[in-house]
Design goal:
By secondary structure, the protein is of the alpha+beta class. The chain has three helices and four strands. β1 and β2 form a beta hairpin. The longest helix is centred in the middle third of the chain and has 18 residues.
């Protein structure tokens, strides 16, 4: 799957990693629901760091369609809320 981190670029991420990412996504959703800004910021960074760690960066000139778009590291709680689906940021 091709994942875009807004403002950074794209990575190719194997589907086997989505179980691990979904755990962080669930924590992020819970923090957002209660308005835990510091927790949200910490978990968003942990999620993005994990995507960077597990993914393989695509070249900057690659223009493959992104199947998943994640917020930039400096995104606000409100901006991320607008990006959410029923499953959170990570499907499944």
């Amino acid at each position: 799957m091709i994942v875009r981190i807004m403002g950074e670029g794209q990575v190719r991420l194997d589907d086997v990693h989505f179980t691990e990412l979904n755990k962080l996504d669930d924590v992020l959703l819970a923090e957002m629901e209660v308005g835990d800004g510091p927790g949200f910021r910490h978990t968003l960074h942990a999620l993005l760091d994990k995507v960077r760690e597990l993914g393989t960066p695509l070249p900057d000139d690659s223009l493959e369609p992104s199947e998943l778009i994640l917020p930039a590291p400096d995104a606000t709680l409100e901006e991320v809320k607008e990006m959410l689906s029923d499953d959170g940021l990570i499907p499944g």
